Automatic annotation (TrEMBL):
<dbReference type="GO" id="GO:0006220">
    <property type="term" value="P:pyrimidine nucleotide metabolic process"/>
</dbReference>
<dbReference type="GO" id="GO:0005524">
    <property type="term" value="F:ATP binding"/>
</dbReference>
<keyword id="KW-0808">Transferase</keyword>
<dbReference type="GO" id="GO:0036431">
    <property type="term" value="F:dCMP kinase activity"/>
</dbReference>
<feature type="domain" description="Cytidylate kinase">
    <location>
        <begin position="3"/>
        <end position="201"/>
    </location>
</feature>
<dbReference type="InterPro" id="IPR003136">
    <property type="entry name" value="Cytidylate_kin"/>
</dbReference>
<keyword id="KW-0067">ATP-binding</keyword>
<dbReference type="InterPro" id="IPR011994">
    <property type="entry name" value="Cytidylate_kinase_dom"/>
</dbReference>
<protein>
    <recommendedName>
        <fullName>Cytidylate kinase</fullName>
        <ecNumber>2.7.4.25</ecNumber>
    </recommendedName>
</protein>
<dbReference type="GO" id="GO:0005737">
    <property type="term" value="C:cytoplasm"/>
</dbReference>
<keyword id="KW-0418">Kinase</keyword>
<comment type="similarity">
    <text>Belongs to the cytidylate kinase family. Type 1 subfamily.</text>
</comment>
<keyword id="KW-0963">Cytoplasm</keyword>
<feature type="binding site">
    <location>
        <begin position="7"/>
        <end position="15"/>
    </location>
    <ligand>
        <name>ATP</name>
    </ligand>
</feature>
<dbReference type="Pfam" id="PF02224">
    <property type="entry name" value="Cytidylate_kin"/>
</dbReference>
<keyword id="KW-0547">Nucleotide-binding</keyword>
<dbReference type="InterPro" id="IPR027417">
    <property type="entry name" value="P-loop_NTPase"/>
</dbReference>
Amino acid sequence: MIIAVDGPAASGKGTIAKALGRHYDLPVLDTGLLYRAVGLSVLKAGGDPDLEADALAAAGFDDDILSDPALRSEAVGSLASRVSVHQSVRDALIERQRDFATQPGGAILDGRDIGTVIAPDADAKIFVTASVQVRADRRFKDALGHGGHPDMDSLIADIQARDTRDMSRDHAPLKQAPGADLLDTSDLTIDAAVQRAIALVDAQL
Ligand code: C5P
Protein backbone atom coordinates (compact mmCIF):
# COMPACT_ATOMS: atom_id res chain seq x y z
CA MET A 1 0.00 0.00 0.00
CA ILE A 2 1.37 3.42 -1.00
CA ILE A 3 -0.02 6.65 0.46
CA ALA A 4 0.94 9.99 -1.13
CA VAL A 5 0.71 13.12 1.02
CA ASP A 6 1.43 16.41 -0.74
CA GLY A 7 1.01 20.06 0.14
CA PRO A 8 2.71 23.41 0.70
CA ALA A 9 5.13 24.41 3.49
CA ALA A 10 3.70 24.22 7.03
CA SER A 11 0.37 22.79 5.85
CA GLY A 12 0.63 19.98 8.40
CA LYS A 13 1.47 17.27 5.83
CA GLY A 14 4.53 16.03 7.74
CA THR A 15 2.61 15.62 10.99
CA ILE A 16 -0.24 13.92 9.15
CA ALA A 17 2.10 11.59 7.23
CA LYS A 18 3.78 10.49 10.48
CA ALA A 19 0.41 9.89 12.17
CA LEU A 20 -0.77 7.85 9.16
CA GLY A 21 2.46 5.86 9.41
CA ARG A 22 1.65 4.94 13.01
CA HIS A 23 -2.00 4.19 12.20
CA TYR A 24 -1.31 1.94 9.20
CA ASP A 25 2.05 0.72 10.52
CA LEU A 26 3.92 1.92 7.42
CA PRO A 27 7.35 3.57 7.08
CA VAL A 28 7.29 7.28 6.19
CA LEU A 29 9.69 9.25 3.96
CA ASP A 30 9.76 13.05 4.28
CA THR A 31 10.98 13.77 0.74
CA GLY A 32 11.49 17.47 1.54
CA LEU A 33 14.51 16.39 3.59
CA LEU A 34 16.23 15.15 0.42
CA TYR A 35 15.82 18.55 -1.27
CA ARG A 36 16.88 20.25 1.97
CA ALA A 37 20.03 18.06 1.99
CA VAL A 38 20.84 19.26 -1.55
CA GLY A 39 20.24 22.88 -0.49
CA LEU A 40 22.46 22.58 2.57
CA SER A 41 25.19 20.78 0.58
CA VAL A 42 25.26 23.60 -1.96
CA LEU A 43 25.61 26.10 0.87
CA LYS A 44 28.45 24.15 2.49
CA ALA A 45 30.25 23.79 -0.84
CA GLY A 46 29.96 27.54 -1.45
CA GLY A 47 27.92 26.90 -4.61
CA ASP A 48 25.02 28.81 -6.17
CA PRO A 49 21.64 27.04 -5.66
CA ASP A 50 20.22 28.73 -8.76
CA LEU A 51 23.00 27.29 -10.95
CA GLU A 52 21.94 23.85 -12.17
CA ALA A 53 25.53 22.45 -12.25
CA ASP A 54 26.19 23.47 -8.62
CA ALA A 55 22.82 22.11 -7.44
CA LEU A 56 23.31 18.84 -9.31
CA ALA A 57 26.80 18.36 -7.85
CA ALA A 58 25.22 18.75 -4.39
CA ALA A 59 22.57 16.10 -5.18
CA GLY A 60 25.26 13.48 -4.55
CA PHE A 61 25.25 14.52 -0.88
CA ASP A 62 26.70 12.35 1.86
CA ASP A 63 23.89 10.76 3.93
CA ASP A 64 25.40 12.18 7.15
CA ILE A 65 23.91 15.52 6.18
CA LEU A 66 20.39 14.07 6.65
CA SER A 67 20.88 14.30 10.42
CA ASP A 68 22.24 17.87 10.39
CA PRO A 69 19.99 20.03 12.65
CA ALA A 70 20.35 22.97 10.21
CA LEU A 71 18.29 20.96 7.72
CA ARG A 72 15.04 22.04 9.42
CA SER A 73 15.61 25.80 9.25
CA GLU A 74 13.50 28.06 7.04
CA ALA A 75 16.73 29.28 5.37
CA VAL A 76 17.49 25.73 4.21
CA GLY A 77 13.81 25.24 3.23
CA SER A 78 14.19 28.21 0.94
CA LEU A 79 17.47 26.85 -0.52
CA ALA A 80 15.70 23.51 -1.05
CA SER A 81 12.97 25.27 -2.97
CA ARG A 82 15.61 26.93 -5.20
CA VAL A 83 17.56 23.73 -6.01
CA SER A 84 14.34 21.77 -6.59
CA VAL A 85 13.40 23.76 -9.71
CA HIS A 86 16.19 22.00 -11.67
CA GLN A 87 14.95 18.88 -13.49
CA SER A 88 18.36 17.14 -13.20
CA VAL A 89 18.28 17.56 -9.42
CA ARG A 90 14.74 16.09 -9.27
CA ASP A 91 15.86 13.19 -11.50
CA ALA A 92 18.82 12.48 -9.21
CA LEU A 93 16.42 12.00 -6.27
CA ILE A 94 13.71 9.96 -8.02
CA GLU A 95 15.19 6.48 -7.64
CA ARG A 96 15.65 6.85 -3.90
CA GLN A 97 12.01 7.91 -3.49
CA ARG A 98 10.61 5.19 -5.79
CA ASP A 99 12.71 2.51 -4.03
CA PHE A 100 11.22 3.66 -0.73
CA ALA A 101 7.69 3.68 -2.18
CA THR A 102 7.91 0.18 -3.62
CA GLN A 103 9.37 -1.63 -0.62
CA PRO A 104 7.42 -4.75 0.39
CA GLY A 105 4.60 -3.90 2.78
CA GLY A 106 4.15 -0.40 1.43
CA ALA A 107 5.08 3.13 2.43
CA ILE A 108 3.93 6.69 2.95
CA LEU A 109 5.76 9.57 1.26
CA ASP A 110 5.16 13.25 1.84
CA GLY A 111 6.28 16.09 -0.41
CA ARG A 112 5.13 18.20 -3.34
CA ASP A 113 4.99 15.78 -6.30
CA ILE A 114 4.36 12.36 -4.75
CA GLY A 115 0.83 11.96 -6.14
CA THR A 116 1.72 13.56 -9.50
CA VAL A 117 5.22 12.24 -10.35
CA ILE A 118 6.78 9.87 -7.81
CA ALA A 119 3.81 7.56 -7.16
CA PRO A 120 0.95 8.52 -9.51
CA ASP A 121 -0.59 5.07 -8.94
CA ALA A 122 -0.58 5.41 -5.13
CA ASP A 123 -3.46 3.61 -3.39
CA ALA A 124 -4.45 6.79 -1.57
CA LYS A 125 -3.58 10.46 -2.15
CA ILE A 126 -4.16 13.46 0.06
CA PHE A 127 -3.42 17.11 -0.67
CA VAL A 128 -2.99 18.94 2.63
CA THR A 129 -3.33 22.70 2.73
CA ALA A 130 -4.03 25.62 5.10
CA SER A 131 -4.29 29.40 4.76
CA VAL A 132 -1.04 31.38 4.58
CA GLN A 133 -1.95 33.14 7.86
CA VAL A 134 -2.44 29.84 9.70
CA ARG A 135 0.76 28.36 8.28
CA ALA A 136 2.79 31.44 9.25
CA ASP A 137 1.24 31.30 12.72
CA ARG A 138 2.37 27.66 13.10
CA ARG A 139 5.92 28.60 12.07
CA PHE A 140 5.79 31.54 14.50
CA LYS A 141 4.84 29.28 17.43
CA ASP A 142 7.44 26.67 16.39
CA ALA A 143 10.17 29.31 16.37
CA LEU A 144 9.08 30.71 19.75
CA GLY A 145 9.09 27.18 21.17
CA HIS A 146 12.68 26.78 19.99
CA GLY A 147 13.73 30.01 21.71
CA GLY A 148 13.74 32.09 18.51
CA HIS A 149 12.53 35.64 17.86
CA PRO A 150 10.32 35.19 14.79
CA ASP A 151 8.98 38.07 12.76
CA MET A 152 5.44 37.42 11.47
CA ASP A 153 5.78 39.59 8.36
CA SER A 154 8.95 37.86 7.19
CA LEU A 155 7.41 34.43 7.91
CA ILE A 156 4.42 35.31 5.72
CA ALA A 157 6.75 36.63 2.99
CA ASP A 158 8.90 33.44 3.13
CA ILE A 159 5.87 31.15 2.87
CA GLN A 160 4.39 33.13 -0.01
CA ALA A 161 7.73 33.15 -1.87
CA ARG A 162 8.12 29.40 -1.41
CA ASP A 163 4.49 28.73 -2.51
CA THR A 164 4.96 30.82 -5.63
CA ARG A 165 8.25 29.13 -6.56
CA ASP A 166 6.95 25.61 -5.84
CA MET A 167 3.67 26.13 -7.73
CA SER A 168 5.01 27.98 -10.75
CA ARG A 169 8.14 25.96 -11.59
CA ASP A 170 8.26 24.11 -14.91
CA HIS A 171 9.12 20.67 -13.49
CA ALA A 172 6.82 18.82 -11.08
CA PRO A 173 5.07 21.94 -9.76
CA LEU A 174 3.10 21.70 -6.53
CA LYS A 175 -0.52 20.91 -7.35
CA GLN A 176 -3.33 18.64 -6.24
CA ALA A 177 -2.89 15.31 -8.05
CA PRO A 178 -5.75 13.73 -9.99
CA GLY A 179 -7.62 11.53 -7.53
CA ALA A 180 -6.22 13.30 -4.45
CA ASP A 181 -8.60 14.44 -1.71
CA LEU A 182 -8.17 17.97 -0.38
CA LEU A 183 -7.67 18.34 3.36
CA ASP A 184 -7.70 21.96 4.61
CA THR A 185 -6.24 21.99 8.13
CA SER A 186 -6.72 25.76 8.73
CA ASP A 187 -9.46 25.31 11.33
CA LEU A 188 -8.59 21.82 12.56
CA THR A 189 -6.66 20.66 15.61
CA ILE A 190 -3.87 18.16 14.90
CA ASP A 191 -6.05 15.33 16.21
CA ALA A 192 -9.02 16.35 14.08
CA ALA A 193 -6.81 16.70 10.98
CA VAL A 194 -5.34 13.23 11.55
CA GLN A 195 -8.79 11.65 12.03
CA ARG A 196 -10.00 13.33 8.84
CA ALA A 197 -6.89 12.11 6.95
CA ILE A 198 -7.48 8.53 8.13
CA ALA A 199 -11.13 8.73 7.03
CA LEU A 200 -10.10 10.05 3.59
CA VAL A 201 -7.47 7.33 3.13
CA ASP A 202 -9.85 4.57 4.30
CA ALA A 203 -12.45 5.79 1.81
CA GLN A 204 -9.90 5.61 -1.05
CA LEU A 205 -8.63 2.10 -0.24
O1 C5P B 1 8.55 19.94 2.67
P1 C5P B 1 9.74 20.84 2.86
O2 C5P B 1 9.39 22.21 3.33
O3 C5P B 1 10.79 20.21 3.71
O4 C5P B 1 10.37 20.98 1.40
C1 C5P B 1 11.41 21.89 1.12
C2 C5P B 1 11.37 22.26 -0.37
O5 C5P B 1 11.77 21.12 -1.14
C3 C5P B 1 9.99 22.63 -0.90
O6 C5P B 1 9.70 24.02 -0.76
C4 C5P B 1 10.06 22.22 -2.38
O7 C5P B 1 10.58 23.24 -3.18
C5 C5P B 1 11.05 21.06 -2.36
N1 C5P B 1 10.39 19.76 -2.51
C6 C5P B 1 10.05 19.34 -3.78
N2 C5P B 1 9.50 18.10 -3.95
C7 C5P B 1 9.24 17.31 -2.91
C8 C5P B 1 9.53 17.73 -1.60
C9 C5P B 1 10.11 18.98 -1.42
O8 C5P B 1 10.27 20.05 -4.75
N3 C5P B 1 8.71 16.09 -3.13
